[in-house]
Write a structure and sequence with these properties.
Strand content of chain A: 15-25%
Largest sheet of chain A: 6 strands, mixed
Helix content of chain B: 40-55%
Largest interface: A-B, 41 and 44 residues
Radius of gyration of chain A: 19 Å
Low-confidence stretches of chain A: none
Radius of gyration of chain B: 17 Å
Largest sheet of chain B: 9 strands, parallel
Oligomer: heterodimer
Helix content of chain A: 40-55%
Structural class of chain A: alpha/beta
Low-confidence stretches of chain B: none
Mean pLDDT of chain A: 96
CATH class of chain B: Alpha Beta
Distance between the termini of chain A: 56 Å
Chain lengths: 401, 271
């Protein structure tokens, strides 16, 4: 079967059986509004020019495609290239989509922004664009994540955002999303929801993917210029999956390019303590879309575990579920301890401190590179920098700062 | 004829408004819900709505969220909701029962199996908060074939096109959500409810009941004046939460307490 990946999702927001719009009635109106606004603007040259300007002058794009020469030598095998999203303003890929969604918000005239955040990267990116546009900003964040990511919490507050602690359920990203949805239902007339990943009800998975695809478009061009060919493989970590879909999407029709999405294996998939729905979950409905989920036999969503707050989510973007079923992308796992080891490796060999989320992709790329030839190339999405994780890493090392 | 339709027909003949009472299955303990259901009926409820607990109830305010959490702590599930209704039917064959919940537990059980089991248990209607008409087409047909009503929400934000689409698919009654918000919110605007109900009324013959924000006899009466009935949820669940704080209690204490609220609302509706 030949699939044109550029034409998905379909009109009703489905990727095969996944995606869609599973929301309570109050939100249908806001989602319809957003869909028609986005349909009108997405091919509008003026809108695109504003996005391009902001990405170049505010975010600092294009981000480099960096050949990690020492790391490549150490591992032995394929050549390792890093797409340096850590060099973006605010330190991660999240800003690519936050900039675009904030511009959409500006067109709606809504003055109040809400967002959910796990590791805090999306919260910081949203607080940043809200500050720049002079919009009121509320960030929902699980109490447990607030503890794990205190630096980002303070950054958001400095930027003028109100950080709302979420105490329900597992007190992590999924519960922050629940609370953001509840706030949106209650304030739908004046509030724009900037969602952090390629999840949620239609049209969010499509909007986030399209804004994040700037990474893949750049990487494709950079690869052609710098190596004279397309990469042989792409590797990116997958929580909700926005950095992965943004890198992968522009390559999906390139059959020669293999793709690996790396889920959080936590203490190991066999332990049950992980955040790997594509590897160990079943399809279900959560947060407005149908996708692979971690749930029990009664369909209750179960608590996940990962060392990295940004991957600690029981669902995944619906397009990833579809790409898994099609076999177009391979979804694999990396455990906490492997991610930690990769964190140290990259820091010490390349002088680049990766986020703990990103470290999962680093760790898998090492395994993959060893199985490939030295004339082959892998692009790894260096989705974020690790400064925010320094306290977590120090705690693991038993060091108090 | 489905019990829900019969119930509204009989209410309309008596010129009475419907009182629909909501409790969460297994809140706060598994043995509480059955006596509470009977008490709700005895004190004047026309229809019972059983909230099926879900780990991520995004449409609920804090009161009902906590109820879902209490119920999940004791392992309550969709499976037990079906068992509960079957038990309820052993002594009550007339009162309509609706299951209100979220899509994922149904998806997990399987839509067809869920419907089969509802038929066996004597469930009359289902309201799935996060399953709008666009995602419910097949399910809806299967429900219709089994004589189970699929109840849909309409909100203040629903456009007229939307109202038409939803009422076309809806069965039993239309559940109008009185405000933009989660369950248990306080800002009820009766004039706005009146306008929306009359606009929906022009599109459908189904009865229109109003929920979210009905907390006592006064609010119930005001809303019932402009609609066919009211749904009371958080006000009941709130009382249950207060009792749950006292530790393990005889289920009959829960039953007596909810009766007091329902009698008050029934009196206000019948005045």
């Amino acid at each position: 079967m030949s699939v044109n990946f550029d034409q998905m999702p379909d009109e009703s927001g489905h990727f095969g059986p996944y995606g869609g719009r599973f929301v309570s009635e109050t939100l249908v109106y806001a989602l319809d509004q957003l869909t028609s606004l986005y349909e009108r603007l997405k091919d509008d040259p003026e809108f695109q020019a504003q996005i391009d300007y902001d990405l170049a002058h505010y975010v600092g794009r294009p981000s480099p495609l960096y050949f990690a020469e020492r790391w490549t030598k150490k591992i032995g095998g394929a050549q390792l290239y890093l797409k340096r999203e850590d060099l973006n303003h605010t330190g991660a890929h999240k800003i690519n989509s936050a900039i675009g969604q904030a511009l959409l918000a500006k067109y709606t005239g809504k003055k109040r922004i809400i967002a959910e955040t796990g590791a805090g990267q999306h919260g910081v990116a949203t607080a940043t664009v809200a500050a720049r546009l002079g919009l009121e900003c509320h960030i929902f964040m699980g109490e447990e994540d607030i503890r794990r990511q205190s630096l980002n919490v303070y950054r958001m507050k400095l930027l003028g955002a109100i950080v709302v602690p979420v105490t329900s359920g597992s007190k992590t990203l999924k519960d922050a999303l629940n609370e953001a949805l509840r706030d949106w239902v209650s304030n739908v007339d004046d509030t724009f929801y900037i969602i952090g990943t390629c999840c949620g009800p239609h049209p969010y998975p499509e909007i986030v993917r399209n804004f994040q695809s700037v990474m893949g478009r750049e990487a494709r061009q950079q690869s052609l210029v710098q190596t004279g060919k397309l990469p042989d493989a792409l590797v990116a970590c997958v929580g909700g999956g926005s950095n992965a879909i943004g890198l992968f999407h522009p390559f999906l029709n390139d059959k020669s390019v293999a793709m690996y999405g790396v889920e959080a294996g936590g203490f190991g998939v066999a332990s049950g303590k992980h955040a790997a729905p594509l590897n160990d979950g079943v399809p279900g409905v959560l947060h407005g879309n149908r996708t692979y989920l971690m749930e029990d036999e009664n369909g209750q969503i179960i608590e996940t575990h990962s060392i990295s707050a940004g991957l600690d989510y029981p669902g995944v973007g619906p397009e990833h579920s579809w790409l898994k079923d099609l076999g177009r992308v391979n979804y694999v796992t990396v455990n906490d301890d492997e991610a930690m080891a990769a964190f140290y490796t990259l820091t010490q060999i390349e002088g680049i401190i990766p986020a703990l989320e990103t470290s999962h992709a680093i760790a898998y790329a090492e395994k993959l590179a060893k199985t490939m030839d030295s004339d082959q190339t892998i692009i790894i999405n260096l989705s974020g920098r690790g400064d925010k994780d320094i306290l977590t890493v120090a705690e693991i090392d038993g060091i108090s700062l | 004829m489905n019990r829900i339709n019969k119930c509204f027909e009989s209410l309309s003949q008596k010129n009475k408004k419907a009182l629909i009472s909501y409790v969460v299955l297994g809140d706060p303990a598994k043995d509480v819900t059955l006596p509470v259901m009977h008490a709700l009926v005895d004190s004047g409820s026309d229809i019972i709505e059983i909230g099926v607990p879900f780990s991520d109830p995004t449409a609920e305010g804090p009161v009902i969220q906590r109820a879902h959490e209490r119920a999940l702590e004791n392992g309550s599930s969709l499976d037990e909701a079906l068992i509960l209704v079957k038990k309820f039917r052993e002594t009550d064959v007339n009162t309509p029962v609706i299951l209100m919940g979220y899509t994922n537990p149904i998806e997990r059980m399987g839509y067809e199996k869920f419907i089969e089991r509802m038929v066996v248990s004597g469930v009359d209607g289902v309201l799935t908060v996060d399953l709008p008409p666009e995602e419910a087409e097949v399910f809806n047909e299967q429900l219709r074939a089994s004589n189970i009503e699929n109840i849909f929400l309409l909100a203040p934000t629903s456009s007229q096109i939307r109202q038409k689409k939803v009422t076309n698919m809806a069965g039993g009654f239309v559940y109008y959500v009185s405000l933009n918000g989660v369950t248990g919110a306080a800002n009820l605007d009766v004039d706005s409810v009146k306008d929306h109900v009359s606009s929906i009324r022009a599109l459908t013959k189904l009865p229109i009941c109003v929920g979210f924000g009905i907390k006592d006899g006064v609010t119930a009466r005001a809303v019932a004046d402009v609609s066919d009935g009211v749904v009371v949820g958080s006000a009941i669940v709130n009382k249950i939460a207060d009792l749950a704080k006292l530790g393990e209690l005889d289920p009959l204490i829960y039953a007596e307490t909810v009766s007091v609220i329902i009698k008050d609302i029934r009196d206000a509706l019948d005045k």
